[in-house]
């Protein structure tokens, strides 16, 4: 009789534990899911900051390039308004030299902005401790080089 009572008690305890396990498992999954969700949100914020910095850098770059082309056009128009070949040659050379310098400076500024944006992003994304595959850092090489 005692043996049957012990067996029945053990079966009841095992059944209760089996029924309770899914509840515990669900709680830990929800917690892990919530943690992963917050890490993904953290990476999302880092991506948004990176994209805003890249947008600003590209806007600055394109404005500088447009200004360089506008200045070159004006300088060349003035150069070809000169009366001697020597004056035209010197003015054209100066116009192209100034244009080259302006373009080089615009590329340097863009490269600096781009590299800074990606470096800040990598630091911020690393701090998020998100699961593998959540970040898009592997696509950094697809960024415009500014030439």
Explain what the structure shows.
This protein has 147 residues and is mainly α. The chain is 83% helix and 0% strand. The protein has two helices and no strands. α1 runs antiparallel to α2. It is rod-shaped and about 75 Å long.
Q: Number of DSSP helices? A: 2
Rg is 33 Å
Which oligomeric form is depicted? single chain
In total, the number of strands is 0
The overall pLDDT average reads 83
Based on secondary structure, the structural category is: mainly alpha
Runs in which pLDDT lies below 50 for 5 or more consecutive residues are 15-29
The biggest beta sheet, please?
Answer: none
| Silhouette | rod-shaped
Along the chain, the helix and strand elements come as HH
* Approximate strand percentage: under 5%
Helix fraction, binned, reads over 70%
Terminal-residue CA separation: 90 Å
Nutshell version of this structure?
The chain is mostly helical and 147 residues long.
Question: Would you spell out the secondary-structure blueprint of this structure?
Answer:
Layout: H1 2-79, H2 85-128
Helix pairs in contact: 1-2
Can you give keywords for this protein?
mainly alpha, rod-shaped, 2 helices
């Amino acid at each position: 009789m005692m043996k049957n009572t012990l067996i029945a008690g053990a079966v009841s305890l095992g059944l209760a534990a089996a029924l309770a396990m899914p509840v515990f498992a669900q709680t830990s999954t929800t917690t892990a899911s919530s943690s992963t969700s917050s890490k993904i949100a953290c990476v999302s914020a880092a991506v948004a900051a990176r994209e805003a910095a890249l947008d600003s850098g590209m806007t600055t770059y394109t404005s500088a390039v447009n200004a360089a082309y506008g200045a070159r056009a004006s300088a060349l128009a003035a150069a070809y308004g000169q009366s001697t070949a020597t004056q035209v040659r010197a003015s054209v050379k100066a116009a192209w030299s100034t244009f080259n310098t302006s373009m080089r400076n615009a590329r340097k500024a863009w490269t600096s902005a781009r590299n800074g944006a990606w470096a800040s992003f990598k630091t911020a994304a690393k701090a998020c401790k998100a699961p593998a595959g959540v970040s898009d850092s592997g696509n950094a090489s697809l960024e415009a080089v500014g030439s």
